[in-house]
Design brief:
9 strands, 8 helices, two-stranded antiparallel ribbon, alpha/beta, Rossmann fold, 321 residues, 18% strand, 36% helix
């Protein structure tokens, strides 16, 4: 299966190497599985049936590939320092993870964090999500963007760019706002603190968005300009919608059931009411955002992981070096 024509370079050429699940899994034949069943249960997202086989066949070789990229980056840094006659500390290796709501990108980011921590060259791996850079609910309401939460304009893009730029500049400590999925808002006075990790994983819907054009015709920086590697989690839109609806149904007895939840009003919905509500939210917000903003960034990733309807990853598209 090939990428759509819009993601080709030239007439029939593609910048990606395509590997199916069987070929990719062979890359892990001589590697030891670092995670156990307890780890899998802890990392698994709601509605995402992650298992030991998936970790071994998909994420074990991926973690090794990423560790090779990190090691190569370190060698390039050393060679550059020798060439310049300088001695500066290496900055964190930054990985972007993009994809739709309910595609499973958060689970993938957590699994990669745990697995990369087991490689000798990357013991300190930290994870941040771009949710912390969403405007607070009060600001979204003021701007008339509450129904477009998750769209590119609902984020404080300047603050997000500054955050990752400081990480890549080698700052000793960088802070980001804390986002609560329970209250659906930024938590005042609470922060995420990043202190010079070996690897930083940045997960979010729009992390691969291209740079914006300025009014004078020039182009600014894109968040992905600061990434050393990027992953896009792909699936059929109809499958993602089904995953979203099923997750919504399960949340009624989970997070929605808590009185402080922003979505507490949905906890008492019947199955039929919940399905209708979830489909309405998907069609009015999440699907348009996916089609207009998220999916067009797929071809910008170094690696595209494509899922089947059962959430299992069936093929990989790796950008040629």
């Amino acid at each position: 299966m090939s990428l759509p024509r819009s993601e080709f370079d030239g007439d029939g050429a593609t910048p990606f190497v395509e590997l199916d699940r069987a070929r990719w899994s062979q890359l892990a034949n001589r590697m030891e599985q670092p995670l156990n069943e307890e780890d899998i249960l802890r990392l698994r997202g709601l509605g995402d049936p992650l298992d030991m086989r998936e970790v071994r066949e998909v994420y074990l070789p991926l973690s090794r590939l990423l560790s090779l990229y990190v090691e190569a980056s370190g060698e390039l840094h050393s060679a550059t320092q020798t060439f310049l006659g300088e001695k500066t500390q290496r900055t964190p290796f930054v990985i972007g993870v993009a994809g739709s709501v309910a595609a499973g990108k958060s689970t993938i980011a957590r699994v990669l964090r745990e697995m990369l921590r087991r490689w000798p060259s990357t013991p300190d791996v930290q994870l941040v999500t771009t949710d912390g850079f969403l405007y607070p609910l009060s600001e979204l309401k003021r701007r008339g963007l509450l129904e477009r939460k998750g769209f590119p304009e609902s984020y404080d893009r300047r603050a997000l760019l500054r955050f990752v730029a400081e990480i890549k500049s080698g700052a000793e400590e960088v802070r980001a706002p804390w986002y609560s999925h329970l209250t659906y808002d930024i938590v005042p006075g609470k922060e995420v603190v990043v202190r010079r990790p070996d690897v930083l994983i940045v997960e979010g819907l729009n992390v691969l968005q291209p740079a914006r054009s300025r009014s004078d015709g020039t182009t600014g920086l894109a968040l992905s300009d600061f990434f050393d590697f990027s992953v896009y989690v792909d699936a059929r839109t109809a499958d993602i919608e089904e995953w979203y609806v099923q997750r919504f149904l399960k949340l009624r007895s989970g997070a929605f059931a808590q009185p402080e939840s922003y979505f507490h009003r949905y906890a008492s919905l019947s199955d039929g009411e919940a399905i209708k509500t979830a489909q309405g939210i998907w069609k009015s917000i999440n699907e348009p955002n996916l089609i207009q903003n998220v999916l067009p960034t797929r071809g910008r990733a170094q690696l595209v992981l494509t899922k089947d309807a059962d959430h299992s990853i069936r093929r990989m598209l790796l950008r040629k070096v």
